[in-house]
Specification:
This protein has a 22-stranded antiparallel barrel. It is mainly β. A hairpin with a 2-residue loop joins strand 13 and strand 14. The radius of gyration is 25 Å and the shape is globular. The chain contains 4 helices and 38 strands.
Length: about 700
């Protein structure tokens, strides 16, 4: 009642925190009032000495985002392109590679996903999420292996113990040069025993027609897509200080006639036409106990990811199946409440097994590759505020160790890999000054790392045939980043600004070395990549209901030395890196009649071309400018919106262009492409829930 007529609302956050903010129609879904756990304890983003973007789940749904990949590029310094097959390529601050374990952390709720030997970022649909946190810069101390360019945390909505909620949404659309699309989504929160036990279920089903053609075969709209997902979350609070949660994720993608790899004239690639059916199951369990001055956390996850692919590659039939199983455990104790010293200590265990089955008769390959990874780590971080001064000093350290081994079977002949053990000590230090309660200026130095990997025996064998000497195992790589940044809320939250400049030295980066004209490659450690860059994010709220935002990131990422046998020379632009990324948007919401609110949004995303100098024959991609627009009406329980994605019908190459000779003769030049202009309508219905 005290907020009535103010245009403000109050809502509850985990940990007993109430956040007062503008209503959902009065500030275009502000994300600045989100409480984040980027340092594994609840804090305001403005107080954290880390370059950080947080995007709330409600804002994602009102923007009409279909997948997390569509949302991520709104963070400065982050570049993403969708491969159209359930996978996306993510670059953060110039850190991007297609080799080894994940180069950027990819957390699904509390624990990370890893591709073990090849970076993988499984698709997550942007429905019923609590928030996404994008942490830029190495996060090796708290988030561990692979968090070199940064860490992406995808946090789903938990079960609410007290409030019933049901919501559903459906959409229909049409794609230029393609066909009809449609989907339905739903979510239900049920307090089974109010205050003690609750369950939340969310599900989606989406179908998208293709748009790439094969004129020679007389077929059209070949790259259709289908997504089916289910998430279940359970929360049980048997006593006041103990909370136990469990969750189940299921994802199934179907891409029966290939992904979005196409030519400049809208034809499907002839060099790579792979039917893909990725499936991902994830089981999570966690418990938190509040001791008053500290919170104890234990989390466990089991991930089962399978990626079958079959079809044509370079004109020959190929069948490839990737299977990854990961079991992770984390135990940590973190301070809670006030006081000059805030701290976190913990330990981490991870067992991962990856199995690759490859049958490619064109090159006489019948290969099974099994990789076993066993990792463990201990970590700690502390922040001290001396004498109540507006200064925070943070220091952290992580010790990591991983054993890597496995075997390969080539045409029935078993070869045991040599194996290796990798160790790394990874510090982070920062100092932050808070000149006012809503401002932070900081300087930091941090190290990120990844274990090495084993050389595929297929590459070793082919390399010997062509006189190329390849190492049996690759060394680990690491990165140091030095950063100066600041963030502030100004003029009573009318203006929010965040910026950073940084320098990174990424050593021993694994790169590909072509093996003659076979289309295959070996792996070798390079001297590394050096990067320097800057980021800026500005949000302006000049009047109630109107939000203007702009983000940009520039990175100059170049190789530190030449690599023989490749196109890499000293000073060459790093592979698969967009030097400049940017986004901007205008959001407006206002009451237009009693009980009726109007909303409108237009957004722009920009990415500079990517190249791949390791393979001299490959060609650069294109500058990409994508514009999305949306207008809608919100009633008490119903919302209706019209949307246009890729309004200007951008069809450039989002990746570098592959240039490959196919078995039947000729050359294929292709790259990943964005979905053409798609126009549609979406309606949603909701009951219950919190304000």
């Amino acid at each position: 009642m005290l907020l009535e007529g103010t245009g403000m609302t109050a809502r509850w956050q985990a940990g007993g925190i109430y956040v007062i903010s503008a209503s959902r129609f009065g500030a275009a879904d502000r994300d600045d009032d989100i409480i984040v756990t980027a340092r594994k304890r609840a804090e305001r983003p403005i107080d954290i000495p880390v370059a950080l973007t947080s995007i709330g789940g409600r804002a994602m749904e009102r923007r009409g985002g279909r997948s997390v990949a569509e949302i991520l590029q709104e963070a400065p310094g982050v570049g993403v392109y969708d491969q159209g097959n359930g996978l996306s390529k993510i670059m953060i601050r110039g850190v991007s590679t297609s080799l080894g374990a994940n180069e950027n952390g990819y957390y699904l709720d509390d624990l990370p996903f890893t591709g073990v030997t090849v970076p993988l970022s499984p698709d997550v649909r942007a429905w019923d999420l609590d928030r996404i946190e994008v942490l830029r810069g190495p996060q090796g101390t708290l988030f561990g292996e692979g968090s070199m360019g940064g860490t992406i945390r995808i946090l789903t909505k938990g079960a609410d113990l007290d409030v019933w909620e049901a919501k559903a949404a459906g959409f229909m659309s049409g794609t230029h040069g393609g066909g009809a699309n449609g989907g339905i989504k739903g979510a239900l929160n049920a307090p089974i025993i109010p205050g003690i036990l609750a369950v939340r279920v969310a599900a989606t089903h989406e179908r998208f027609d293709g748009w790439l053609d094969d004129d020679a075969a007389g077929t059209r709209n070949l790259n259709g897509q289908r997504f089916d997902t289910v998430r279940v979350r359970l929360r049980f609070d048997p006593v006041a200080r103990l909370s136990i949660t469990g969750s189940y994720w299921f994802y199934q993608g179907r891409f029966p006639t290939g992904g979005s790899l196409g030519t400049d004239n809208g034809q499907q690639s002839r060099s790579s036409v792979l039917r893909t059916t990725p499936r991902h199951r994830l089981y999570n369990g966690a418990a938190r106990y509040d001791f008053g001055g500290a919170e104890l956390f234990y989390g466990y996850s089991h991930s089962d990811y399978r990626l079958p692919q079959n079809g044509l590659l370079l004109g020959g039939a190929i069948s490839a199946v990737i299977g990854i199983k990961v079991d992770s455990h984390e135990l940590r104790l973190a301070s809670a409440g006030g006081g000059p010293l805030q701290w976190t200590v913990g330990g981490y265990l991870r067992d991962a097994d990856r199995n690759d089955n490859l049958d490619f008769a064109l090159f006489g390959i019948d290969n099974v590759d099994s990789t076993r990874s066993r990792a463990r780590a201990v970590f700690g971080e502390a922040t001290y505020t001396p004498g109540g001064a507006p200064i925070d000093i943070t220091a952290g350290l992580r010790y990591y160790e991983e054993d890597l081994g496995g075997y390969e079977v080539n045409s029935g002949i078993v070869t045991h890999d040599q194996g290796d053990t990798y160790r790394s000590v990874n510090p982070r230090v920062s100092i932050a000054w808070h000149p006012r309660p809503d401002a932070t200026i900081y300087a930091s130095a941090a190290k990120g790392f990844r274990a090495g990997q084993l050389q595929p025996t297929t590459s070793l064998a082919l390399g010997k045939q062509f006189g190329i000497d390849l190492p049996p195992a690759l060394g680990q790589d690491s990165i140091w980043t030095y950063e100066l940044g600041g963030k502030a809320d100004l003029f009573d939250h009318m203006l929010t600004i965040e910026g950073a400049i940084y320098y990174s030295d990424w050593k021993d980066v694994t790169v590909r070395i072509p093996i003659a004209a076979t289309g295959f490659n070996g792996l070798i450690n390079s001297k590394g990549i050096r990067s320097k860059g800057a980021e800026l994010s500005v949000i302006l709220r000049p009047m109630n209901g109107l939000t203007l935002s702009a983000n940009g990131g520039y990175v100059d990422a170049t190789y530190s030395g030449a690599v023989a046998g490749t196109g890499i020379i000293k000073g060459a632009i790093a592979d698969d890196v967009a030097s400049f990324t940017a986004s901007a948007s205008i959001d407006y919401g206002a009451q237009i009649a009693d009980g009726v609110f109007g909303t409108a949004r237009i957004g722009w995303q920009h990415s500079s071309p990517r190249s791949f100098v390791a393979f001299p024959g490959y060609l650069p991609g294109d500058t990409i400018d994508r514009i999305d627009a949306r207008v809608g009406l919100d009633f008490d329980r119903v919302s209706v919106a019209l949307f246009a994605d890729n309004l200007t019908n951008e069809n450039g190459a989002t990746s570098y262009r592959l240039v490959q000779t196919i078995a039947s003769g000729g050359t294929d030049i292709s790259a990943f492409r964005p979905r053409p202009r798609t126009i549609g309508i979406e309606a949603s219905l909701r009951f219950g829930g919190r304000p």
